[in-house]
User: Which sequence fits this backbone?
């Protein structure tokens, strides 16, 4: 392991090498790798031992050419930090695994140019299909995928007007439902902390949802004091500091996700404010963080695991050549916990 | 996007197609892709537009053959859930990105047979090198990687006796340091909640550290009441329920990581116990979760970002053919916060 020999200096083991070492025909080796159930246990063990001893790995390039498949699916997510995508991807991977498909993930750090590069790398590495997050991206990427015949499914967002197959939920409607609850408590001075909205349709639609609920309740949407920050607890806290310095102070702070909301709560408590007596705070996603803070966070529950599992099933069909009939909308649910109450006074 | 045409039915665009569309020579296209700084801005834009329009992607197979590189590095981590590996990988990826290398990640769900499969898939897809977590795995995997000439670096664990290049920290010594602090507070009835220790040297070494500290303080290590559970907040809570039902009750619960510790804290508080007045709880990792709970968690801080960044630099050297002189040990730090106090009474 401490050497990195020139690959050319050591010829790679071939199927014939494995057959010779195991004392079987190449057809038997091939059967072991592709239809092991058809091979007697003892022979299979001998072949697998030879495979391991020689460090043989089937030539995926050649196999892909024959089967037009590599049994690899790529997923490009905006961040691995924080748990928002982790849980959904875990379910996505489990379901793919049941179908013998390996998932490879790349994380774009919310940078569109990096996402484009990673999509190209995954296609170049032979991904049969891709899972992408949200609809916002250069149309050239979709043209590239179409030219390559690589199907892509968009998750974490549902937009039937976007013309691309997607599985997700209506971020705008879900957030409008939560904001309506906040307003129903009597709040009129609303503020919001959002993740950066450029290239992030989820963040944008959630804020549109807040404004929609305000409009419906007769509150002028332009009265919403909105701060946009990068995605982290610390940035949520910093934005909260700015909002709590406003006069008059907002009585409810609607956050674009749980991570920002937890930062906002922390800051309020550090400033000696009681949540929700002095100020209400809400989140979105219902990740683990939402339930470990005191009081527990009022938020929108997203069916992460269900989405991941169904996305895998849909992609498998798409790889098989069956186009998706229509995008799939999943339901979200309000989780009314301890951080939402009536305004002070 | 709704069709998955037979790849054979649509020939892939070639370098010559791109050159023809952009009205330049194939040498210019090649220069644009490999040494863009040498090409005039306007020409470069025209070529990149043609690349996008045609959905051209360089043939990595042929390039790899020529350069013996694919500029892809694979990382296999045990879980994407929770933030333990996320932050380190983010730094790893940023540093690789600065060197034009793309990172692809697979998550093994703590299953060794899945890890082996993913390592083979990444090598088959042309990974130049691999980042692996911890030392525990079938020696056949190391033989396979050596046969393929693919260097691998082990992270999140430091063990100079293991004979494999690694970057990480001494889990045993770090945990022994924390346990010594717990004992110094006067605790004698210690319990521990650990992640599953099979195939997880980090978990095992941490518990060895607890026993080492007990021994050094004259407490019989076999008196440690240890519960092993899967890695989740809920499992930490469940284990805490069992420990708090013991008679006499342990006065300090040392947890193998922050996630389990946060679950344990929650459970104690649900049972009406005050942390740390009635029972002390400690974690390990210092992830975001540790600072958002009340009181904040006493834990061991791990230099995740520093480890990721240095791992990328080391792997780059290994890809270049420079063997690692010796494994790298990083320092951890105790974070004494609110969940550790003297025993009751």
Assistant:
């Amino acid at each position: 392991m401490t050497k990195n020999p020139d690959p050319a200096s050591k010829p790679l083991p071939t199927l014939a090498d494995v057959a010779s070492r195991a004392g079987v025909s190449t057809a038997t080796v091939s059967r072991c790798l592709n239809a092991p159930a058809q091979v007697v246990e003892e022979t299979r063990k001998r072949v697998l031992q030879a495979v391991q001893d020689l460090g043989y790995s089937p030539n995926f390039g050649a196999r892909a050419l024959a089967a037009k498949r590599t049994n690899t699916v790529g997923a490009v997510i905006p961040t691995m930090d924080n748990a928002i995508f982790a849980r959904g991807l875990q379910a996505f991977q489990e379901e793919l695994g049941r179908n013998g498909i390996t998932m490879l993930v790349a994380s774009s750090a919310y940078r569109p140019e990096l996402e484009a590069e990673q999509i190209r790398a995954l296609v170049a590495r032979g991904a049969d299909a891709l899972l992408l997050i949200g609809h916002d991206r250069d149309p050239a990427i979709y043209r590239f995928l179409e030219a390559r015949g690589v199907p892509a499914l968009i998750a974490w967002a549902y937009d039937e007007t976007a013309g691309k197959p997607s599985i997700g939920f209506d971020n705008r409607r879900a957030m409008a439902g939560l904001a309506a609850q906040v307003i129903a408590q009597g709040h009129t001075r609303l503020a919001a902390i959002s993740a950066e909205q450029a290239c992030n349709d989820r963040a944008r639609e959630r804020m549109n949802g807040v404004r929609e609920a305000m409009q419906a309740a007769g509150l002028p949407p332009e009265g919403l004091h909105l701060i946009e920050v990068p995605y982290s607890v610390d940035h949520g806290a910093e934005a909260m500091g700015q909002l709590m310095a406003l006069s008059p102070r907002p009585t409810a702070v609607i956050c674009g996700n749980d991570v920002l909301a937890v930062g906002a709560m922390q800051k309020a408590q550090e400033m000696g404010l009681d949540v929700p007596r002095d100020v209400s705070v809400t989140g979105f996603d219902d990740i683990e963080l939402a339930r470990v803070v005191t009081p527990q966070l009022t938020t929108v529950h997203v069916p992460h695991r269900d989405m991941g599992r169904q996305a895998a099933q849909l992609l498998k069909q798409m790889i098989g050549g069956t186009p998706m009939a229509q995008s799939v909308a999943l339901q979200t649910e309000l989780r009314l916990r301890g951080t939402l109450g009536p305004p002070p006074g």
Summary: Chain A has 13 helices and twelve strands. The first helix of chain A runs from residue 15 to 22. The domain at 7-58 of chain A is CATH 1.10.260.40 (434 Repressor (Amino-terminal Domain)). Residues 1-10, 60-67 of chain A have pLDDT under 50 and may be disordered.
